[in-house]
């Protein structure tokens, strides 16, 4: 019954996870392209590309995280894990804060 909403939630979750992993790996790789703070990067062009990919991936992670934080419950239509007016967080993110619908439940 709520399969479409949960699919959307999972998509944000997966994209956010990919963004976090790619961002950390890319920015970490940029650190190895420096020669140890002597001002002579080993591969400056590759560093800019990896740095850009890393920053964009981290931004994608934050965007997906925010989409998940303000995900609307498919049963009650309110924020799944946020209180009134979008403030406060659920202590149990596996259930809707308002109607107690379990995450990924069908009914
Ligand atoms: Zn709800």
Verbal overview:
The protein has two domains: 3-69; 72-107, no CATH class. Helix content is 52%, strand content 0%. The protein contains two helices and no strands. It is elongated. 13% of the residues are buried. The model has no long low-confidence stretch (mean pLDDT 87). Zinc ion is lined by residues 73, 75-76, 78, 96, 98-99, 101.
Mean pLDDT equals 87
Total count of domains: 2
Question: Segments where pLDDT lies below 50 for 5+ residues?
Answer: none
Q: What's the β-strand tally?
A: 0
Specify Rg, calculated over alpha carbons: 19 Å
Helix proportion range: 40-55%
| Head-to-tail CA distance between termini | 6 Å
Shape: elongated
Question: How many DSSP H or I helices?
Answer: 2
Ligand inventory reads: zinc ion
The secondary-structure element order is HH
**Main sheet summary:** none
Tell me the layout of helices and strands.
Layout: H1 3-32, H2 44-69
The structure holds zinc ion.
Zinc ion binds next to loops.
Quick recap of the structure?
By secondary structure, this protein is mostly helical.
């Amino acid at each position: 019954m709520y399969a479409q909403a949960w699919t959307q939630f999972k998509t944000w979750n997966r994209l956010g996870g990919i963004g976090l992993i790619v961002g950390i790996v890319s920015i970490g790789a940029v650190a190895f392209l420096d020669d140890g703070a002597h001002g002579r990067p080993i591969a400056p062009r590759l560093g800019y590309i990896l740095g850009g990919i890393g920053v964009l991936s981290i931004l994608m992670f934050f965007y997906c995280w925010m989409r998940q934080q303000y995900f609307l419950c498919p049963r009650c239509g309110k924020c799944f894990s946020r209180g009134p007016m979008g403030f406060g967080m659920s202590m149990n993110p596996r259930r809707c804060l308002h109607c107690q619908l379990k995450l990924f439940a069908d009914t």
